[in-house]
Amino acid sequence: xxxxxxxxxxxISEYWRTGDTTPIRVFSPMFDEDIMPIETLFRSYAxxxxxxxxxxxxxxxxxxxxxxxxxxxxxxxxxxxxxxxAIDISPLSVETMRERGVMKVLQQDFFTLNTQFDxxxxxxxxxxxxxxxxxxxxxxxxxxxxxxxxGQLLFDSSDICxxxxxxxxxxxxxxxxxxxxxxxxxxxxxxxxxxxxPWSYIDAETVNEAALTHGYHFDILSEGPHYDYLARITKx
Length: 236
Ligand code: SAH
Prior knowledge:
The protein has one domain (47-180, 201-235): Vaccinia Virus protein VP39 (Rossmann fold, 3-Layer(aba) Sandwich). It is built from six helices and twelve strands. It has helices spanning 7-18, 50-58, 72-79, 91-100, 136-146, 204-213, and strands spanning 24-28, 31-36, 63-66, 84-88, 105-107, 117-122, 147-158, 182-189, 192-193, 197-200, 216-223, 228-235. Strands 5-4-3-6-7-12-11 form a seven-stranded mixed sheet, with helices on both faces. Strands 1, 2, 8, 9 and 10 form a five-stranded antiparallel sheet that branches. The chain is globular, with a radius of gyration of 17 Å.
């Protein structure tokens, strides 16, 4: 990723180096403008949602933290003595993680990996990294290569059906071909704009179906307070 187009990496790096708390602005055609406080990406164990805490407890063996950002999960696992590798496409985030003490860091696109792990973590709605729900097959083909025998992929996600809820609490999903959880985001930090990118919030049933199609087993491990869940994918 090019540095001048990496608002999140820049925000992470500047917060780490100078304590600058300018938030990241988040734009999406389906929502009002939002902000992401930079402190969110530096959250401590106590500041993490329970679903993430549970995922960290379940991590074992050679562990991969995908889209590791500022490294909040990797640092906790490393302290617990887990052999964790953080991977991120952002050079500024990778630099920051190294400075923060994450020992194994890869600056690489997750989808180009070719080494095996026992636990693969996709946290903070991390399965959205596939971009569109229709691309889940790309993830499963990758898992064929990088998930060690008896390995597990742990991820959290949300079913964003609630955004289609009316005043009476009735949810009517849009009648379009496009999966309703497929979004486009654009991020801004100070004068740095990133390119728009696709990210998907995928409901459990959709992931389950894709898992079965590709010979994987899907389990919900825990449900959060607002249509969010933690799930595990293992080879059947
Ligand atoms: N997991 C972190 C950060 C989430 S933000 C946390 O929970 O705080 C998502 C991160 O994924 C960003 O740092 C972004 O640079 C990274 N990312 C996006 N696509 C990626 C890809 N294909 N390979 C590796 N990292 C990716």
